[in-house]
Amino acid sequence: MIVVEDLHKHFGGFHAVDGASLSIAEGSITGLIGPNGAGKTTLFNVIAGVLPPTSGRVTMKGEDITGLPPHELFDKGLLRTFQIAHEFSSMTVRENLMMVPGGQTGETLWNTWFHRARIREEEATLLKRADEVLEFLTIDHLKDEKAGNLSGGQKKLLELGRTMMVDAKIVFLDEVGAGVNRTLLNTIGDAIIRLNKERGYTFVVIEHDMDFIDRLCDPVICMAEGKVLAEGTLAEIKANEHVIEAYLGTGLKNKTVGASA
Amino acid sequence: MDFLNAIVALANFVIIPATVYGSQLALGALGVTLIYGILRFSNFAHGDTMAFGTMVTILITWWFQSMGINFGILPTALLALPFGIAITSLFLLGTDRVVYKFYREKKSEPVIFVIVSLGVMFMMNGIVRFIIGTGDQRFADGERFIISTREFKAMTGLQEGLAIRFTQGITVVTAIIVVAALFYFLNRTRTGKSMRAFSDNEDLALLSGINPERVVMVTWIIVAGLATIAGVLYGLDKTFKPFTYFQLLLPIFASAIVGGLGNPLGAIAGGFVIAFSEVSVTYAFKKVLGYLLPESLEPDSLVQLLSTDYKFAVSFVILIIVLLVKPTGLFKGKSV
């Protein structure tokens, strides 16, 4: 589905992503793990078009998508969430969700005043969808709350909800579980599995919680220092010597990765 | 009776002019604040955008007048206004395409945009003066009054007269309509919401599939509308002179900053704060006090805090106080 070939992203002399190559299979939930500073988020940013790559190529279903702006990638069904949840703080939760699908009829000045019926119809559909999403995520009681007032975990759910407003093909989740309590994390996990099974979303998940990775992801890709270190099932990754070294340094090889992460 | 006279004098010389001036400033400041909120720079060319829009409207007005087209009792300029807005929109979109887009694609710092807008300002400055000249231009169809001093005196029997010019009434009514439409647009329509979303969180807006170029385009069109309307109303109320419009930049920026840059509600409040301060500080209160105070206490001097020559100093002082005490403005805006 997504193939990344020899991707480099340098910030001055710092090589955040340093020749990463990987491929993501359609219909999979791929985990992306690695110690802090491994270049996971930068990799996401480059794939999602937020940052231009220094060199390398990204293709989606064989089509070159390197360096396309985010809104065009969005139209192709490539979505991402942020490590630190973003939201339109002055809008309500429901309005936040209804912002999502791009290219709505009401988006041009002309249509705003001259195609009111069509817009109303569209908005009604969106409203229904937004309410369904909120119910699915169990935050429907917050729909008229200003998004800026939500808790960190609820904002994460809202991020996930945003991807459900359109028929996404591939969703990049950046630490969707960070700062989220166990119960909420299970809700998020359930949602991801359901979206994967029922709607065929492909997910790429950056996560530090190994139980969460274990529950959802196959395969798992481990990155360190801007390179892909290993790929396989979580058990294989945990057994991989390079990975243990990257996480714990040398000399601690008999400990497992999961316990420390 | 003296008390009523005092109130009428105050209304005639302070309240009505300040309300009218406040409406004009509010419309100007709305344009500045929208650009700041969405395109993220202070547009120094705004005063001259107003001048450009007004100039186009004046030329069309003169053409209409020469062909004998009129708008009944309303000024012909209002009929020319939509055309003025359309041409100014095209002009701003052209400027954006030729100038700002280049820097946007390079993701330049806001301060570079500010300097660029300064350059654009000088260009517009030159264009306007080249086309219409530097002098005063009148384009109202003669003075018309909703109520004139004589009528008012005859009606009420008061010593003091109250005059409301037609253009003053039109200014306030137009401002109310425009502001209502703008707020409806920003809060209720999808286009307006995507503008707010873009202003709130640009990264997220991009990743929600909002097309940034379209948001930018819509912003320029709305700014062209606001600037032209503000400029034409100001010109109808007073006269059109390119240099005056250039000078208006200070009170307009003061209004936007006092209210909180990036906050439309703040821009309106700021406009009225500046207008009322400016008018009341430069008004000679001798007459009003003369009615209110017993004869022995009546002031001999004019009781004028500042000469009208210094009216821009008022905006400047308020601006400095706000920046020192509350940099985010009265309403929560973005810090400057």
From TrEMBL, chain A:
GO terms for cellular component: plasma membrane. Keywords: ATP-binding, Nucleotide-binding, Transport. Residues 2-250 form the ABC transporter domain. GO terms for molecular function: ATP binding; ATP hydrolysis activity. SMART domains: AAA. It holds the Pfam family BCA_ABC_TP_C. CDD domains: ABC_Mj1267_LivG_branched. It comes from the Bacteria. PANTHER family: CONSERVED COMPONENT OF ABC TRANSPORTER FOR NATURAL AMINO ACIDS, CONSERVED COMPONENT OF ABC TRANSPORTER FOR NATURAL AMINO ACIDS-RELATED. This is ABC transporter ATP-binding protein. It comes from Halocynthiibacter halioticoli.
TrEMBL record, chain B:
The keyword Cell inner membrane applies. Belongs to the binding-protein-dependent transport system permease family. LivHM subfamily. It comes from Halocynthiibacter halioticoli. One of its GO terms (molecular function) is L-isoleucine transmembrane transporter activity. GO terms for biological process: D-alanine transmembrane transport; L-alanine transport; L-isoleucine import across plasma membrane. This is Branched-chain amino acid ABC transporter permease. GO terms for cellular component: plasma membrane. Keywords: Amino-acid transport, Cell inner membrane, Cell membrane, Membrane, Transmembrane, Transmembrane helix, Transport. It is found in: Cell membrane.
